[in-house]
Amino acid sequence: MTGVIQVLQALSVPVIAVVGAYIGWQQLLISRVKLKGDLFDRRFAVFDSVRKFLSEIMREGDVPDKALWEYRAGIADAPFLLDDQLCEHFDVIWKRSIDLRATMRNLSSQAQGADRTKLSHDMASDLEWFGNQLTALVDEFKPFLKLQQPVKWPWQ
């Protein structure tokens, strides 16, 4: 009987080590899934800010002050979450929105004439550009927001 007890005592340490390693592995897998979820939430917040900004421009036909600063605040974390190319695109949207705003201000101060017609055409092409950005937004964000296959658990 003492021999059985000694064998069980000798085996208990390796069994505890294997169980501990298995629990550690499970925690690693769970933390990877949590990291993906956290990244998704933060990236989606940037996506939502850009979408709201573009939608407001299309709805209003202008760029309200509040929308400008909400957009800027909404994309502030983008360099840490998304690639450089997409962040540069956000800057282009910012610059084009400033240009549209200036066009709208100039258009409201022009009474008539060729300058007003040119400004109207510029405004229309800018609004078309913003509309195209709104439709392309999902494709641009898809690589960053697409949820991959779930992690395979060892028992699957």
Tell me briefly what this model is.
This protein is 84% helix and 0% strand.
Question: What do you see in this structure?
Answer:
The chain is an all-alpha fold and 156 residues long. The protein has a domain at 38-145. The chain is built from five helices and no strands. Helix 1 packs antiparallel against helix 2, helix 1 (2-60) runs antiparallel to helix 5 (114-145) and helix 4 (84-109) packs antiparallel against helix 5. The longest helix is centred in the first third of the chain and has 59 residues, at 2-60. It is rod-shaped. It starts with a helix and ends in an 11-residue tail after the last helix. The relative contact order is 0.11. The mean pLDDT is 86.
